Amino acid sequence: MSIRFGVSPIAWANDDMPELGGETPLESILKDIQELGFEGVELGGKFPRDPATLKPLMARYGLDLIGGWYSGELLLRDAQAEIAAMQPHLALLKAMGSEVFVFAETSNAVHGNRRTPLTGSPRLQASEWPLFGQRMTAVADHVQAHGLKFAYHHHLGTVVERAEDLEAFIANTGASVGLTLDTGHAALGGIDSLRIIAEHPRRIAHVHCKDVRLERFESSWKQGESFLDGVLGGMFTVPGDGALDYARIMEALADIGYQGWIVIEAEQDPALADPRRYAAAGLAELQRQARRVGLTG
């Protein structure tokens, strides 16, 4: 597989805040994505979960279903219980020919709670990482055995948020546990994306690209605002519109011979940041940088 560009529907309709784009029809979103030139889209809350309905819908717009976020609870249940719980999601992705299973531990996450500030993210004690890692590896082994890449999503407001969290996570999980490297969450969590790519190339299973407006993030942090308030305040944007150096990020991916999806996932208020216009700009930036470093022709 070479490089393919996809997008998350979150810029059009935010599942964490249904008031953002909740009225936008799914077919309008898919039409935009097709016309902008993306090859695939990640699963969103508006998508039907029946493959018999979803397959012809995706075919109508010539789009692949890349994969989709799964909220795990491995801090509360063992691997077998998690595997049982994920079967409907896994079955849908398999039926759709998806390539990536995006997993995030959300049992104690705060990113969806507007009453909890960005500073209130959960932490794991050193003694808790081994069991968490063992369970995660068992789940990843199962997903991999079904033909999908397991891609853990580090995320603000979760137990894998900071650089030390990610290092502990990698140290305590096996080779089947890949990463969804999210450049925006990395930057705001103090994670060096370039170092992670260089030092853990075999773990890079999937890439989410967003840019960050650091001054808006810092303002939200200082004011004790929540993750969702930060999103509403505009701390995220598309590649090329913020503080991140996508020339270096693409060079790093080229250096490790990355093959797979590169997905724009940049949530903003669609009433203030037109999803189509921003997605077009982000895709143009990624394509330009990818061509420059030889990731694409």
UniProtKB/TrEMBL annotation:
Gene3D superfamilies tied to this protein: Divalent-metal-dependent TIM barrel enzymes
InterPro entries noted in UniProt: IolE/MocC (IPR030823), IolE/XylAMocC-like (IPR050312), Xyl_isomerase-like_sf (IPR036237), Xyl_isomerase-like_TIM-brl (IPR013022)
Domain named Xylose isomerase-like TIM barrel: residues: 31-285
Database matches in Pfam families: AP_endonuc_2
Highest taxon, organism lineage: Bacteria
Name of the protein described by the UniProt record: MocC
